[in-house]
Amino acid sequence: MRFRAKILALSVVTAIMAYSWRDTFVAESLRGAKVLVTGASTGIGEQMAYHYASFGAQIIITARRENVLKKVAEKCLELGAQKALYVPGDMSNTTDPEKVVKFAVEALGGLDYLVLNHIGPSPFAMWDGDVEHVRWLMQVNFLSYLQMTSSALPHLEKTGGSIVVVSSMLGKMCTPFVGPYTATKFSLSGFFGTLQHELAMQRKNVTVTICVLGLIDTQSAMDKIKGYTSMKAYPATDAALHIIKAGATRQRESFYPLYTYFGSLFRDWFPFLRDLFIQNSYNYEP
Ligand SMILES: NC(=O)c1ccc[n+]([C@@H]2O[C@H](COP(=O)([O-])OP(=O)(O)OC[C@H]3O[C@@H](n4cnc5c(N)ncnc54)[C@H](OP(=O)(O)O)[C@@H]3O)[C@@H](O)[C@H]2O)c1
């Protein structure tokens, strides 16, 4: 009898989870959508640009390298984007975030999605005490996100738009070799988690989606972890599509791949075993 009750409870929980995780995304909702994607010259940002393009969105892409952006924008037009423009910007420069948003709003006549994805390069190594690098990375990976959000919010309020923040499992759980990067991702979780509450309490029709990603097979990530770990990396194009769907369906927090959800859920249950597992999953000789 007890066994049956347990099976029943498990089935109910599974059914609720399957219902809440069902795919409610409607591709048509992105046709003509006005989208700004940052860090779109390579990696996940580039893949997001291609997906938005194939859904018929109007896109502005930004990063530092103009020649690369030009090629990505051309491919977006081939894939079906209603509009695809690019604007070079360096997010370590404190005036560029506002300039980029201004360009996007003027070129598109408004904004539906602000997709914050860019990151500055940071070494995969034990922290060497370099505080200046952390300060610089905070500007690129964190403060520029806030500057763009601040500039875009009035426009997003007009359209009932969305802010999509690309974060990481490393914004939820501490691991070695990534101190400065992790600091910026934890900051994003804290700030944008607060903003979610405040927008809801002010009854503003703007949503914030925080995407928690695991290891993704972009060139920069693969180069960094080479020799340190043999962890499986997931495809950038799938991660990009997951982020777009999460934003379009106005989810609060979204996880890709699924292990990041369970990792976040069970993070603090067995801290000793967790830390042992993390430290032993890297190749390192002091
Ligand atoms: N790949 C992973 O394993 C992984 C895991 C978890 C989370 N994520 C998150 O996913 C997002 C994308 O990661 P990714 O692996 O696709 O990164 P990536 O391939 O290294 O791309 C980074 C992008 O940011 C741009 N960028 C770099 N410095 C910049 C600056 N100072 N100003 C403006 N743009 C700058 C780069 O273009 P330019 O060089 O042309 O400027 C590039 O377009 C990040 O938020 C990352 O934290 C990635």
Automatic annotation (TrEMBL):
Keywords: Oxidoreductase, Signal. SUPFAM superfamilies: NAD(P)-binding Rossmann-fold domains (SSF51735). The keyword Signal applies. Belongs to the short-chain dehydrogenases/reductases (SDR) family. The keyword Repeat does not apply. Coiled coil: none annotated. Residues 1-18 form the signal peptide. GO terms for molecular function: oxidoreductase activity. This is Hydroxysteroid 11-beta-dehydrogenase 1-like protein. It holds the Pfam family adh_short. InterPro entries: 11-beta-HSD (IPR051253), NAD(P)-bd_dom_sf (IPR036291), Sc_DH/Rdtase_CS (IPR020904), SDR_fam (IPR002347).
